[in-house]
Amino acid sequence: MSRRGEVLLATGILLILWHLLAEIVRRPILPTPMAVGAALVQELPGDLALHLLASAGRVVISIALSIATAAPLGLALGLSPRLHRLISPFLYILYPIPKVVLVPILILFFGVGDLAKILLIFLILFFQILVLVRDAAANLRPELLLSVRSLGAGRRALFRFVYIPASLPAILTAVRQSIGTAVAVLYLSELLATRYGLGYYIYIQASTFFDYPAMYAGIALMSTLGLALYLLVDALERRWCRWMFST
Length: 247
Hints:
The chain is globular. The longest helix is centred in the first third of the chain and has 47 residues. Helix 2 packs parallel to helix 9 and helix 7 packs antiparallel against helix 9. It contains nine helices and no strands. Helix content is 81%, strand content 0%. The protein is mostly helical.
Protein backbone atom coordinates (compact mmCIF):
# COMPACT_ATOMS: atom_id res chain seq x y z
CA MET A 1 0.00 0.00 0.00
CA SER A 2 1.27 3.47 -0.86
CA ARG A 3 1.95 6.12 1.76
CA ARG A 4 -1.16 8.00 0.63
CA GLY A 5 -3.28 4.87 0.99
CA GLU A 6 -1.92 4.20 4.46
CA VAL A 7 -2.75 7.74 5.56
CA LEU A 8 -6.28 7.51 4.16
CA LEU A 9 -6.85 4.16 5.85
CA ALA A 10 -5.61 5.45 9.20
CA THR A 11 -7.79 8.56 8.81
CA GLY A 12 -10.84 6.41 8.14
CA ILE A 13 -10.18 4.27 11.21
CA LEU A 14 -9.74 7.35 13.42
CA LEU A 15 -12.99 8.87 12.09
CA ILE A 16 -14.87 5.65 12.88
CA LEU A 17 -13.45 5.57 16.40
CA TRP A 18 -14.31 9.25 16.84
CA HIS A 19 -17.90 8.64 15.72
CA LEU A 20 -18.30 5.68 18.08
CA LEU A 21 -16.91 7.69 21.00
CA ALA A 22 -19.20 10.63 20.20
CA GLU A 23 -22.21 8.28 20.16
CA ILE A 24 -21.18 6.89 23.55
CA VAL A 25 -20.52 10.26 25.19
CA ARG A 26 -23.50 12.08 23.61
CA ARG A 27 -22.51 15.53 24.85
CA PRO A 28 -22.20 18.80 22.90
CA ILE A 29 -18.48 19.03 23.73
CA LEU A 30 -17.83 16.00 21.49
CA PRO A 31 -19.75 16.35 18.21
CA THR A 32 -19.71 13.63 15.57
CA PRO A 33 -17.36 13.83 12.57
CA MET A 34 -20.39 14.54 10.36
CA ALA A 35 -21.31 17.60 12.43
CA VAL A 36 -17.72 18.82 12.33
CA GLY A 37 -17.54 18.24 8.58
CA ALA A 38 -20.73 20.26 8.08
CA ALA A 39 -19.27 23.10 10.17
CA LEU A 40 -16.05 22.94 8.16
CA VAL A 41 -17.92 23.21 4.86
CA GLN A 42 -19.94 26.12 6.23
CA GLU A 43 -17.05 28.04 7.80
CA LEU A 44 -14.23 27.46 5.32
CA PRO A 45 -15.51 29.83 2.59
CA GLY A 46 -15.59 32.62 5.17
CA ASP A 47 -13.12 33.77 7.80
CA LEU A 48 -11.82 30.26 8.50
CA ALA A 49 -9.90 30.32 5.22
CA LEU A 50 -8.17 33.53 6.30
CA HIS A 51 -7.26 31.97 9.64
CA LEU A 52 -5.80 28.96 7.83
CA LEU A 53 -3.74 31.14 5.46
CA ALA A 54 -2.41 33.20 8.37
CA SER A 55 -1.28 30.13 10.30
CA ALA A 56 0.19 28.42 7.24
CA GLY A 57 2.11 31.56 6.30
CA ARG A 58 3.66 31.84 9.77
CA VAL A 59 4.80 28.22 9.81
CA VAL A 60 6.17 28.24 6.25
CA ILE A 61 8.11 31.47 6.78
CA SER A 62 9.55 30.12 10.03
CA ILE A 63 10.66 26.87 8.37
CA ALA A 64 12.26 28.73 5.44
CA LEU A 65 14.14 31.11 7.74
CA SER A 66 15.38 28.31 10.01
CA ILE A 67 16.69 26.24 7.09
CA ALA A 68 18.34 29.25 5.44
CA THR A 69 20.22 30.16 8.63
CA ALA A 70 20.75 26.90 10.53
CA ALA A 71 21.85 24.69 7.63
CA PRO A 72 24.88 26.80 6.56
CA LEU A 73 25.93 27.33 10.17
CA GLY A 74 25.57 23.61 10.91
CA LEU A 75 27.76 22.78 7.91
CA ALA A 76 30.36 25.29 9.07
CA LEU A 77 30.41 23.86 12.61
CA GLY A 78 30.66 20.29 11.35
CA LEU A 79 33.51 21.05 8.96
CA SER A 80 35.53 23.39 11.16
CA PRO A 81 36.70 21.95 14.51
CA ARG A 82 38.02 25.36 15.53
CA LEU A 83 34.66 27.06 14.91
CA HIS A 84 32.89 24.19 16.66
CA ARG A 85 35.02 24.61 19.77
CA LEU A 86 34.22 28.32 19.77
CA ILE A 87 30.43 28.01 19.30
CA SER A 88 29.61 24.72 21.05
CA PRO A 89 29.63 26.13 24.64
CA PHE A 90 26.94 28.64 23.66
CA LEU A 91 25.02 25.90 21.86
CA TYR A 92 25.06 23.64 24.92
CA ILE A 93 23.63 26.46 27.01
CA LEU A 94 20.96 27.69 24.58
CA TYR A 95 19.72 24.43 23.05
CA PRO A 96 18.08 22.93 26.19
CA ILE A 97 16.16 26.13 27.00
CA PRO A 98 12.41 25.60 26.32
CA LYS A 99 11.76 28.23 23.68
CA VAL A 100 8.16 28.72 24.83
CA VAL A 101 9.43 30.53 27.93
CA LEU A 102 10.78 33.23 25.60
CA VAL A 103 7.27 34.32 24.59
CA PRO A 104 7.11 37.29 27.04
CA ILE A 105 10.54 38.48 25.93
CA LEU A 106 9.68 38.25 22.24
CA ILE A 107 6.46 40.16 22.82
CA LEU A 108 8.27 42.89 24.76
CA PHE A 109 10.83 43.36 21.98
CA PHE A 110 8.75 42.72 18.86
CA GLY A 111 5.15 43.33 19.90
CA VAL A 112 2.18 41.03 19.43
CA GLY A 113 2.27 40.94 15.64
CA ASP A 114 3.40 38.20 13.29
CA LEU A 115 7.11 38.81 13.85
CA ALA A 116 7.10 37.55 17.45
CA LYS A 117 5.15 34.42 16.47
CA ILE A 118 7.44 33.67 13.53
CA LEU A 119 10.56 34.17 15.64
CA LEU A 120 9.27 31.80 18.32
CA ILE A 121 8.73 28.97 15.82
CA PHE A 122 12.01 29.87 14.10
CA LEU A 123 13.97 29.45 17.33
CA ILE A 124 12.53 25.98 17.91
CA LEU A 125 13.41 24.80 14.41
CA PHE A 126 16.76 26.59 14.23
CA PHE A 127 18.49 24.69 17.00
CA GLN A 128 17.19 21.28 15.96
CA ILE A 129 18.31 21.77 12.36
CA LEU A 130 21.64 23.22 13.49
CA VAL A 131 22.51 20.25 15.72
CA LEU A 132 21.50 17.56 13.22
CA VAL A 133 23.27 19.21 10.27
CA ARG A 134 26.39 19.76 12.37
CA ASP A 135 26.50 16.10 13.34
CA ALA A 136 25.87 14.95 9.74
CA ALA A 137 28.70 17.14 8.42
CA ALA A 138 31.11 16.12 11.18
CA ASN A 139 30.46 12.40 10.61
CA LEU A 140 31.19 12.34 6.88
CA ARG A 141 33.46 9.42 6.06
CA PRO A 142 37.03 10.58 5.26
CA GLU A 143 37.35 8.06 2.42
CA LEU A 144 34.35 9.67 0.71
CA LEU A 145 36.01 13.08 0.78
CA LEU A 146 39.34 11.62 -0.39
CA SER A 147 37.71 9.81 -3.30
CA VAL A 148 35.99 12.98 -4.51
CA ARG A 149 39.19 15.03 -4.08
CA SER A 150 41.12 12.42 -6.06
CA LEU A 151 38.87 13.17 -9.02
CA GLY A 152 40.00 16.78 -8.93
CA ALA A 153 37.06 18.24 -7.05
CA GLY A 154 37.62 21.64 -5.51
CA ARG A 155 35.87 23.34 -2.61
CA ARG A 156 32.81 24.26 -4.67
CA ALA A 157 32.42 20.74 -6.03
CA LEU A 158 32.74 19.28 -2.54
CA PHE A 159 29.93 21.47 -1.29
CA ARG A 160 27.73 20.67 -4.27
CA PHE A 161 28.26 16.92 -4.50
CA VAL A 162 29.22 15.91 -0.95
CA TYR A 163 28.41 18.36 1.83
CA ILE A 164 24.99 19.55 0.66
CA PRO A 165 23.65 16.05 -0.26
CA ALA A 166 24.98 14.70 3.03
CA SER A 167 23.24 17.43 5.02
CA LEU A 168 19.88 17.23 3.22
CA PRO A 169 18.61 14.14 5.14
CA ALA A 170 19.56 15.80 8.44
CA ILE A 171 17.78 19.03 7.49
CA LEU A 172 14.60 17.22 6.43
CA THR A 173 14.68 14.95 9.48
CA ALA A 174 14.99 17.95 11.77
CA VAL A 175 12.11 19.73 10.06
CA ARG A 176 9.95 16.59 10.20
CA GLN A 177 10.64 16.12 13.91
CA SER A 178 9.90 19.76 14.63
CA ILE A 179 6.62 20.11 12.74
CA GLY A 180 4.44 18.84 15.60
CA THR A 181 6.16 21.12 18.09
CA ALA A 182 6.00 24.05 15.69
CA VAL A 183 2.24 23.65 15.16
CA ALA A 184 1.67 23.32 18.91
CA VAL A 185 3.67 26.49 19.56
CA LEU A 186 1.81 28.19 16.71
CA TYR A 187 -1.46 27.53 18.54
CA LEU A 188 -0.10 29.00 21.78
CA SER A 189 1.34 32.05 20.03
CA GLU A 190 -1.93 32.76 18.24
CA LEU A 191 -3.76 33.09 21.55
CA LEU A 192 -1.86 36.33 22.22
CA ALA A 193 -3.55 39.50 20.96
CA THR A 194 -4.14 38.47 17.37
CA ARG A 195 -7.10 38.60 15.02
CA TYR A 196 -6.21 35.87 12.55
CA GLY A 197 -4.88 32.36 12.97
CA LEU A 198 -6.29 28.92 13.67
CA GLY A 199 -5.26 29.13 17.33
CA TYR A 200 -7.27 32.32 17.74
CA TYR A 201 -10.22 30.80 15.85
CA ILE A 202 -10.26 27.65 17.99
CA TYR A 203 -10.06 29.61 21.23
CA ILE A 204 -12.81 32.07 20.27
CA GLN A 205 -15.20 29.35 19.11
CA ALA A 206 -14.67 27.36 22.32
CA SER A 207 -14.56 30.07 24.98
CA THR A 208 -16.83 32.77 23.52
CA PHE A 209 -19.40 31.21 21.21
CA PHE A 210 -19.39 27.63 22.55
CA ASP A 211 -19.67 26.48 18.94
CA TYR A 212 -18.04 23.10 19.42
CA PRO A 213 -18.43 21.79 15.83
CA ALA A 214 -16.69 24.94 14.56
CA MET A 215 -14.02 24.56 17.24
CA TYR A 216 -13.32 20.99 16.14
CA ALA A 217 -13.27 22.15 12.52
CA GLY A 218 -10.46 24.52 13.44
CA ILE A 219 -8.63 21.72 15.26
CA ALA A 220 -9.04 19.47 12.22
CA LEU A 221 -7.61 22.16 9.95
CA MET A 222 -4.64 22.74 12.24
CA SER A 223 -4.01 18.98 12.32
CA THR A 224 -4.32 18.86 8.54
CA LEU A 225 -1.81 21.70 8.27
CA GLY A 226 0.72 19.74 10.33
CA LEU A 227 0.03 16.56 8.35
CA ALA A 228 0.40 18.37 5.02
CA LEU A 229 3.76 19.80 6.08
CA TYR A 230 4.90 16.37 7.26
CA LEU A 231 3.90 14.72 3.98
CA LEU A 232 5.55 17.54 2.00
CA VAL A 233 8.85 17.01 3.81
CA ASP A 234 8.51 13.26 3.27
CA ALA A 235 7.94 13.79 -0.47
CA LEU A 236 10.90 16.17 -0.73
CA GLU A 237 13.13 13.63 0.99
CA ARG A 238 12.13 10.94 -1.50
CA ARG A 239 12.77 13.33 -4.37
CA TRP A 240 16.02 14.93 -3.19
CA CYS A 241 17.53 11.95 -1.35
CA ARG A 242 16.74 9.15 -3.78
CA TRP A 243 19.88 7.21 -2.87
CA MET A 244 18.36 6.54 0.57
CA PHE A 245 15.42 4.65 -0.96
CA SER A 246 17.19 2.76 -3.74
CA THR A 247 17.05 -1.03 -3.50
